[in-house]
Amino acid sequence: MNKLKDYGLTDKIETEYIENTEANGSSRGTEEVIGRIIKDFGRSWLVITENGELKAEISGKLRHEGGRPAIGDWLALRQVETDKAVVTSILSRKSKISRNSAGNETTEQIMAANVDLVFIVFGLEGGRQFSQGAVERYVTLGWNSEAIPCLILNKMDLAAPDNIVSAMNMAEEAAPGVNLILTSCETMEGIDQVKGMFSPGKTCVVIGPSGVGKSSIINALVGDEKMKTGDIREKEKKGSHTTTHRELILLPEGGCMIDTPGLRELQLWADDEALGKTFSDIEEIASECRFNDCSHQGEPGCAVQAALAEGLLTHRRYENYLDLQRELAYLNRKTDFQARKEETDKWKQIHKTMKDFYSKNGGKRTG
Ligand SMILES: Nc1nc2c(ncn2[C@@H]2O[C@H](COP(=O)(O)OP(=O)(O)OP(=O)(O)O)[C@@H](O)[C@H]2O)c(=O)[nH]1
Ligand SMILES: [Mg+2]
Ligand SMILES: [Zn+2]
What we know:
The chain has helices at residues 2-6, 11-24, 60-64, 132-144, 161-174, 191-195, 214-222, 232-238, 272-278, 280-286, 303-310, 315-360, and strands at residues 31-40, 45-49, 52-58, 74-81, 84-90, 96-100, 108-113, 117-123, 148-154, 179-182, 203-207, 247-250, 256-259. By secondary structure, it is of the alpha/beta class. Among the domains are: 2-90, CATH 2.40.50.140; 96-259, P-loop containing nucleotide triphosphate hydrolases (Rossmann fold), CATH 3.40.50. The longest helix has 46 residues, at 315-360. The radius of gyration is 24 Å and the shape is globular. Bound molecules: guanosine-5'-triphosphate (GTP), magnesium ion and zinc ion.
C-alpha cells in the first residue's frame, strides 16, 4: 500500500475499504483491490492499485444505484483480469468540486473528488474570460467543495505592470481571504510558490477557462512536458480544448495534481454558505441590517444600502451578489422539483409492478 500512500491513501479510507469488502465477501477467481482513479474516460476509468494500473468499468449494481465515479475517487474493485477490474463501490468522498452539468438538465457533475486544494486559474493577457464575475463564480464553486480555493493569475509575462496591479485589486475584491499567486510559465515566476502549496499525500486540482495555462502550470511543476498544451490560435481555429479528459498525476516532490479540460460556461453548483464565503465582506456588512431576513433591496435600516451610499461597497459587487443569489435560488427550486419528481416516478413504478404482479396471480394476494 506504500505506493498508494503517495496517492493520498489514508487509514480512514483503508478502513472503510476493508469493512466494505468484508461485508460483501469476495468471489472465487477474482481479487478485491483498492484503487484511485487517475484517468476519467467518461464510461471507463484508469485506476492505480497495488497491482498496477487497471482499466475499470462500473458494476451493473452500482450503475443501477446511480453511482458515478469521478477523477480522484477511491474505489473498491474486483480485479477480473491482469489489467481489468470492475468497480464495486465508491468510497466516501472527503471533498468534491462540482458544477451544474452544461445543458438543460439540472444535475451535479463532479469535476474532481478528494481534493485538498482547488487552484482556480485565469490568464492575465487581457482576454474577456477574466472578469470579476467569473472569479466570484469560480471561487463560490471552490468554497462549496470542502477543499480550499486558491487563485492563480497566470501569464504575467504578457501583462503590463499597471494591468497586473489592477487585476490583483480586482481579484482581492472578488475573493476576499483567498490566497492569490501570480505566475508565468514562460519565466517560471511564482511556480515555486505554487509548489509550496503541495505536500506528500495532498491532492490539488486545477480548474478554469480553456487556454489559461492549466496544463502548462502542471508541466512547470513537473519540470517536463508531461501534459499536452495547446497554441491559443490553433485552439480558436478548432474551437477545441487541448486537455480532453481529466487526469491525476503524481508530482516528483510529492502530492498529486488533477488536470481538467477548460470550461466554456460555468453554472453554479453551490449552497448559500459557499456564496456567503465568497461575499464575506457583504455578509459582514449585512449582519448590521435591522432585519434578519433583509434582502438589501430597499428595506429600512439596511446596512448594505448604507455601505453602497458611502462608497464602502461597489455597485458592481453588490449586483453580482444579488445575481448569484438569484441563480442559486433558482438552482435550489429546480433540484427540489427534480427530487420530488423522482420520488413520484419511483412510486408510480412500484404501483405498476404491484399491479402487474396481482394481475399475473389472478388478482389474488399470494404468500
Ligand atoms: N506567454 C505565456 N504563455 C503561456 C503561459 N502559460 C501557458 N501559456 C501558453 O498558453 C497556451 C495554452 O496553455 P495550456 O496549458 O494548454 O492551457 P489549458 O488551460 O491547459 O487549456 P485547456 O487544456 O484547453 O483547458 C499554450 O500555448 C501555452 O504555451 C504563460 O505563463 N505565459
Ligand atoms: Mg489543458
Ligand atoms: Zn440589508
